[in-house]
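re the bet — no i am not wrong, look at it urself. input seq straight from the record:
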Amino acid sequence: MLNKQKDNNFDSTISECIDRALSILGDSLKEFVVLKLEKDYHLALDNLGKDPAKLEEGLRETLGDFVAASVLNYIANNISEAFKMNFDGCTNLTRIVEHVRNTA
């Protein structure tokens, strides 16, 4: 039971970090991206961190490489702040989420 609660807290924190980063896009574009991720990638806003590779792919396909890179950087920074970790400029969400999950 305790591990499940820890996983839920972890997933919730990751989702909040992603949500905050998507806010840099503005309300309309953020809403469009979230809907696109839900429809095309089966990623709901409350579990965007469950499949970081799919999230990265969806952001790149939806926003293009340049804008997606900026959003991914914001996500990485938010996760770094939330979990008090330094990723040395890494924006690979799969690596970041795995690292945080294994050490948090």
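see?? The helical segments are 2-22, 27-41, 52-63, 65-83, 93-103. told u. also The chain has one domain: 2-103. so pay up
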